[in-house]
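Deliverable D4.2, example record:
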Amino acid sequence: MSIPRTVYKMQATGNDFVVYADPRGDLEPTADQVRWLCDRHFGVGADGVIRLTHPADVSDLDQAQVDACDRFGCQWFMDYRNADGSLAQMCGNGTRAITLFAQKQGLTPTMEGSSFLLGTRAGVKRIVSCSPMKCDGEHVFMVKVGAWRMGPVGQQLIDGGALGGSAPGTMVDMGNPHAVVLTAVAAELEASGLPGTVADLLARTDLPDPGDLDLSAPPRVRPGLAEGQNVEFLRLDALDADNGSGRATMRVYERGVGETLSCGTGLCASGVLLRALTGVDHWTIHVGGGCLKVDVDPQDVWLTGPARMVARLTLEHVPGC
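Output generated by the structure prediction step:
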């Protein structure tokens, strides 16, 4: 296994990736190479590595997964790996970043309204271009992240790490697993009265506002999953039930990475919980890397946000090559 000497740095609301194309299917990275690329001191620095390749050339896929891509007419696959070298089922921000990369490589159209079918370990996703390319290289995409499943509200206990307290969390499956925690609401919302479930969750938390949390160590989720889960912390900022819209703020601790400036599937999972708590379907959610839109219905979630290419890089040395 190896990686090419030329790679690219991409970011989508601060969630950053090292990406490269592998049309021949012979450049699958090792876990050590992923860790080196993502190292922010000795490598390039990133939250993860994305190899754009054909589904048949992803070694961990079974034939049923490859056949599913074929049925959709999906030629390209997002082989995504976390910064610690582990495989990831899905990355919402990564789908936008790799679609922009595919456009720049001439692998998919660039015009507004065009779409790109992308295989992931969580199924085939369709990413739609929403705006012309801006002069700074930023482009906005909407991805149908797809089906969601939510466990009982508040069933998990989130504590440990450096949190200094605990709060109830809710498991949401977006193709990869999340535990979503509501820790605060804006003062004006609290003064105007809160939905009963929101008030109940807040009464059971002693965590501070998300902006004041210490996420330097992984939070503990009980009961949690053996493979781990991302953990999202939310503040409900505004609610307009008449228009079916709301605003929130999110911070996230990603398994295999640590705190990141954004997490696409975490944003979707947050939208799912917020909908369950308020009945509101359309959300604008602020993260450390920017602002995104999340739209939820009873079956699916859509995520809309920007992506940008940062650099084209020539590696002087690749460990293991």
